[in-house]
Automatic annotation (TrEMBL), chains A, B:
Belongs to the CinA family. It comes from Desulfuromonas soudanensis. Transmembrane segments: none annotated. SMART domains: MoCF_biosynth. This is CinA-like protein. Residues 6-172 form the MoaB/Mog domain.
Length: 416, 416
């Protein structure tokens, strides 16, 4: 059965420019990952007649409607009342909902505000959905062959109830299994077209291919349907990993930086950084990850030549003859920070992120990356396209990718 | 006249989790800034009958409908055809649209793909909206007292046409002036409640107050309507600036980091940084701004004690007796980086961003910030709440704010 699903989000703040409607996007992504596609989405303000009109219109034309927002304790939270009006039901104090709200406050040793009692005033025959993260109970109404799921607008409460209660119901409506499973592999260093070429004729029949972009990464989405979906995806992932080899830099919910951090923790390799054009971005990305102090010793953000000389030991002669944006300088920076920090690995970047500073020889986007370890040195020139922010991101991802590869090499054969 | 406005966005990718619908958010924000509120928004997929049904439903109930997406050259771009079907018009080759598309390619010395001709097939009586950024012409249809604006889905093309053509039309429908003007002041260091208290009874009558949050900043929105709006806002802004004093760290579209960068460029003051818990975040934020090399000399990301000793001259004794997370260490780090870099200003942060590493004395969120200049030293302990990412952001904004204040002091009285 091909379910038709609609999303209705409620809230003035979504229509007056105060806030982006992240809930529709999150629902589309979570459902999309399991193969459900939304037929439409709507947003209305905190106006009882507008909410009721939208509910009536959707009851006539969709199998499932997911409604978020307007379940709070204040006067402009009108969704339950609007649902009662739309479907000709009375609002009644729902004992189960009231018990859940009381339990929420009791678990926190807080007194319940009398206003929260309003959140238990729900349309007749509402079935309650558990919410242990907030005061608003979710609920379900069956109306004219349509299942209406009402969820709170707070994003983490909404997504928790969606995953815990709504997905399972959708699977039941679809005959016991989710219509589709998905795995995501994150590719760096190949364009979408190049990625697609490598995957031509390698995926087993039954595994569909889709793409997404999270600049500068390409997301490869493998999808399969039916009872055999997980087996198909296991085989598809194996084939894709073989075809894309180490252009795959992360998978699933993991980011490239998290992956690099985990690899460094596991190998015990320590790292120091010397950044010029990225201005601390690489260090920032790695130290976003909790526990990064176990491998990250230090970083230098050396914008000036003097800093490069003083902290990294880059010679004045080199800077004068080759310039700060050069292969020799990148290598000297990496050697210098490694010597100072006494780390296993040291990585340096120097380049021109723009918009100013480009020359005919070294246009904006010219970047040198260097990586050194015991008995190992690598340095390369890149010409990145894009604006300042894109050039900095491309540089940072290239740097992280180099660290990832050397850490994997270390895992595999003990070097460096 | 109070216009009722709806937005309809078209595209499968908005409903299957591939992409967030940023266009509705952008339209709501741009229109909201001028006082227009959306009555509702809808999203449908690339299905001709769904698009046509949505257009028919909206024609019956709204004054203005802004439609985005589905105007491209490929087979799944169906919006013009759906509009013709919905409103019983023929699709005709629009000469003005075709001329615009040809001019777009001519200006780029590119050959026009025959498929792009399809983009000039528009419903009868469509009035063309100029688009010099892409191939899809926007167009307007009047239908049953409703004005339909059809815009391309590419965000920068959409927002350009919205600002250049649609806003002016909305102002004309509303009687010649935008219904409301808005100014945004960005506050750091006061909560929303504290900000509101300071603004009580200081704004002139006719200036409305609203709030937004961009963690950790509070956005104060001053709004006024009618012919006198700009005068009212001038007076309102003056009063708000007096009441909030230097808790206002930026205004309008400017960020705190951009503001700090501009101040440093203007004063000619140079800066160096020593970061521990922020791991490069402060340097990253400042070097995001083009031209930051004119004032930013260097930054040290000193995660290890050894790095603090070696590059910043923090003594082993101090680290042993006071610990790396201490007032004394923050001050020594700032002094050390200033000595090495010979900058006018030097700022240091050290703290515990979590989730691990907290103690009873120094729980997660304990952060020390130090700023030194010639004849000037400031150091302070903070206890920030939140998760790792929030603690790092609070620390970075506090650091930027300290630099902003000292640069303003320098502008005002020549110190330090």
């Amino acid at each position: 059965m091909n379910l038709t699903i609609a999303v209705l989000t409620v809230g003035d703040e979504l229509l007056n420019g105060e806030m982006a409607d992240t809930n529709t996007t999150a629902i589309a992504r979570i459902l999309g990952g399991e193969g459900y596609r939304l037929s439409e989405s709507l947003t209305v303000g905190d106006v009882e007649t507008d909410i009721a009109a939208a509910l009536c219109a959707l009851a006539a034309r969709r199998d499932v409607v997911i409604v978020t927002g307007g379940l709070g304790p204040t006067g402009d939270d009108l969704t339950a009342r609007a649902a009662a009006r739309a479907f000709g039901r009375r609002l009644v104090l729902n004992d189960e909902a009231l018990g859940q709200i009381r339990a929420f406050f009791a678990a926190r040793n807080e007194a319940m505000d009398p206003r929260n009692e309003k959140q238990a005033l729900l349309p007749q025959k509402a079935a309650i959905l558990a919410n242990d993260r907030g005061t608003a109970p979710g609920f379900v109404l069956s109306q004219e062959k349509t299942e209406f799921f009402f969820l709170p607008g707070v994003p983490d409460e909404m997504t928790a109830i969606l995953r815990e209660s709504v997905l399972g119901a959708l699977h039941r409506f679809s005959g016991g299994v989710p219509p589709r499973r998905e795995r995501v592999l994150k590719v760096f260093g190949l364009s979408e077209v190049q990625t697609e070429e490598r995957l031509e004729q390698v995926l087993p029949p039954g595994v569909e291919l889709a793409f997404g972009v999270d600049f500068p990464l390409v997301h490869v989405k493998l999808r399969a349907c039916g009872e055999e979906a997980e087996n198909l995806l296991d085989r598809g992932e194996l084939a894709a990993r073989r075809a894309l080899d180490d252009f795959i830099v992360a998978a699933g919910e993991t980011t490239l930086a998290q992956n690099v951090a985990r690899l460094l923790e596991n190998t015990g390799l320590t790292l120091s950084l010397a950044e010029s054009c990225t201005g601390g971005l690489i260090a920032k990305l790695l130290t976003d990850v909790p526990g990064s102090s176990s491998f990250f010793e230090r970083g230098a953000v050396t914008y000036s030549n003097q800093a490069k000389q003083q902290w990294l030991g880059v010679s004045r002669k080199l800077l004068e003859e080759e310039g700060a944006v050069s292969e020799a300088c990148a290598l000297a920076m990496a050697r210098g920070v490694r010597r100072a920090a006494a780390t296993d690995l040291a990585l340096a970047v120097t380049g021109i992120a723009g918009p100013a500073g480009g020359t005919a020889d070294k246009p904006v986007g010219t970047v040198f990356v260097a990586l050194v370890a015991a008995g190992y040195e690598q340095v390369q020139r890149f010409g990145f396209a894009g604006d300042r922010s894109q050039i900095r991101l491309m540089t940072a991802c290239t740097a992280l990718e180099w660290i990832r590869r050397i850490a994997i090499k270390h895992l595999n054969d003990g070097a460096p």
